[in-house]
Amino acid sequence: MNGNTIFDPLRRKEVARTPEEEVRQWFIGVLRDSLGVPEHMMRSEVGFTYGNASKQYRADIVIFGRDASPAAVVECKRPEVELSGKVLEQALRYDMVLSVKWIIVTNGSRTFAARRDGDSFRFENALPRYEQIIL
Fold first, then answer.
1. Cα 85 → chain centroid
2. How many other C-beta atoms are found inside a 10 Å radius of the C-beta of residue 135?
3. Which residue from 34, 84, 97, 132 lies 20 to 30 Å from 54 (Cα-Cα)?
4. Whole-angstrom Cα distance, residue 36 to residue 110?
5. Residue 85: predicted pLDDT
């Protein structure tokens, strides 16, 4: 362990310390400590393919329901990255594969959560607790 790495409790190992990784590790703590998400119901760096399987995607954090199905996807960005429509589009692409109830995007200073409302997503005023995520 040194200043070039940071411990990821979900992967249970030291990983390279980058600005985005620091945001991811901070938000794992928020999910666990403030929003009641059990650590064993989250995974980081979840890989999957979309479409014709030529494009590989990797979700920063996926939160699972008690039935082990994906319930929320979290997209983490470096602090200087604006949380634009392009960032939300990236998370929506993940939803096309994962079919989640919640999408959360954060850059460490701003965080937005959107809940599925039929075929679209509606932004919420507050971050959901685990019980809300898995409803």
1. 16
2. 11
3. 84
4. 20
5. 86
Q: Are strands 5-8 and 42-50 parallel, antiparallel or unpaired?
A: unpaired
User: Does pLDDT of 105 surpass 60?
Assistant: yes
Determine contact, residues 100/60, Cβ cutoff 8 Å.
Answer: no
For 28-78, what is each residue's pLDDT tens digit?
999 999 999 999 999 999 887 766 666 778 899 999 999 999 999 999 999
φ and ψ at 13, to 5 degrees?
Answer: -160, 165
The Cα–Cα gap between 132 and 21 comes to 26
Beta carbons within 10 angstroms of residue 80's beta carbon: 9
User: Concatenated DSSP letters for the chain?
Assistant: --TTEEEETTTTEEEE--HHHHHHHHHHHIIIIIS---GGGEEEEEEEEETTTTEEEEEEEEEE-TTSSEEEEEEE--TTS---HHHHHHHHHHHHHH--SEEEEE-SS-EEEEEEETTEEEE-SSPPPHHHHT-
